[in-house]
Each structure stands twice: as C-alpha cells, then as structure tokens.
Design goal:
It is built from 5 helices and no strands. The protein is mainly alpha-helical and 80 residues long. Helix 3 packs across helix 4.
C-alpha cells in the first residue's frame, strides 16, 4: 500500500540512483520464467564456457577466465 502512495510512486530506488551515478541505466524486467529472460541464457552459456577453461586459484587467471567466458557468449545463444 505504501508503494502506491503519491510520495513514493515517482521516487527512484537506491539501485537506480547508484547506477545512474555511474553512467548507466538500471533496467528492471518483469518477473517471468527464467528461461525467457535473455540474461539467463547469457549466464548459462558463459558458465558452460568458464567450466571448460583451465582451473586456477590465481586472482588474475580467474578474472581473465571470467571475462573470456562472458565475451564468448554469441548473440544467437542469447536470443534463443
């Protein structure tokens, strides 16, 4: 009920304020099955690629592997 009050309707959330302060918009998707959300397809593909990369405990290797996995997701896989 409080969220529908006029004082609260047009107020941005802290997440929106933090994102916009860093120069990008916060996009909120409606809740629906995760298989229909494109970001889940991207994460799933990236996790699959990440698991195939060489295992390492060095932070630099982990960061490089994460970035490589995220960049490897093709648009076709995301759009499916």
């Amino acid at each position: 009920m409080l969220y529908n009050e006029p004082d609260f309707v047009n107020v941005e959330s802290l997440l929106e304020i933090a994102c916009e302060a860093r120069g990008f918009p916060a996009i909120f998707f409606p809740e629906f099955h995760f298989e229909l959300n494109f970001i889940e397809q991207c994460w799933g593909y990236s996790k699959h690629v990440y698991r195939e990369l060489p295992v390492s405990s060095k932070e630099a290797d982990l960061e490089r592997n994460v970035l490589a996995a995220l960049e490897s997701a093709p648009f076709d896989a995301i759009r499916r």
